[in-house]
Amino acid sequence: QVQLVESGGGLVQPGGSLRLSCAASGNFVRIGAMGWYRQAPGKQRELVALIPNGGNTNYADSVKDRFTISRDNAKNTVYLQMKNLKEEDTAVYYCNAGVSRIGIGWKDYWGSGTQVTVSS
């Protein structure tokens, strides 16, 4: 099995910062692209940021210049540094990773989500 566990969510005032982390664990051969998605109440899940295993990062227009995605391959962990947070960033944030497992091949895995609330 593969588990993705997010941490770092919480309540922050507008203009504040948060750092999300997502650690992958389990029995796998390799992790490919990792990303963060979010889902606000009544809205569809949307891509926030994506980081391949080598190559350029990709951001939603709404978070460019405010959010930074990074990864530590030695720790199988992806991070999302969020700055200048706005109320519209309020959502459940989900970690996603493409993982290769013996006998299964490549498959997408999701974390259970962490709540980010931006409010004064």
Notes on the protein architecture:
The protein has 120 residues and is mainly β. The protein is built from no helices and eleven strands. The protein has strands at residues 2-7, 10-12, 18-26, 30-39, 46-51, 58-59, 67-72, 77-82, 91-101, 105-110, 114-118. Strands 2, 4, 5, 6, 9, 10 and 11 form a seven-stranded mixed sheet that branches. Strands 1-3-8-7 form a four-stranded antiparallel sheet, with no helix packed on it.
Largest sheet: 7 strands, mixed
Query: Secondary-structure element order, as H and E?
Result: EEEEEEEEEEE
As residue ranges, the low-confidence spans are: none
Distance between the termini: 40 Å
Strand coverage percent: over 45%
* Oligomerization category of the chains in this entry: single chain
- Shape field: elongated
Overall average residue pLDDT:
96
Q: Helix proportion of residues, in percent?
A: under 10%
Radius of gyration: 14 Å
Label the structural class: mainly beta
